[in-house]
Specification:
This protein is an alpha+beta fold and about 120 residues long. It has two helices and four strands. The strands form two sheets. Strands 1-2 form a two-stranded antiparallel sheet. Strands 3-4 form a two-stranded antiparallel sheet. About 0% of the residues are buried.
């Protein structure tokens, strides 16, 4: 009788192990597929110019350094970004157009800008 209980327990244990192993293997395979899918999508949809590539590879800057997200120019605390508020799908979003160096190129960068503050 005890031999029968022993084999029944062993059979139940092995079946639970195989079930958990197959579940974990399926999840790992799905994760690998989704990661490779995301890599191919991101490489196809993101087209970068040479300026953007060099801007993205620049070394990290100290905390508090202000830079333009479009051209990478360093900004002083008095220089801001040109942006506009747009409504998209019922939510308000901010569209950044650039700084005074990339959006308003005709401005003289050496001339101080008047602030409305």
């Amino acid at each position: 009788m005890s031999l029968l209980i022993y084999f029944a327990g062993l059979l139940i244990g092995v079946s639970i192990f195989l079930y958990l192993y197959s579940t974990i293997a399926d999840k790992a395979e799905g994760l690998k597929k989704s990661q490779s899918k995301n890599k191919t999508q991101s490489s196809q949809t993101i087209i970068q110019s040479n300026d953007t590539i060099s801007f993205r590879k620049r070394p990290s800057l100290p905390p508090g350094t202000r830079i333009c997200p479009l051209c990478g120019s360093s900004l002083t605390k008095y220089e801001g970004l040109y942006a506009t508020k747009i409504k998209q799908n019922g939510t308000n979003k901010i569209l950044i157009m650039g700084c005074r160096y990339c959006y308003k190129e005709d401005e003289d960068p050496l001339r101080p800008k008047k602030s409305s503050i």
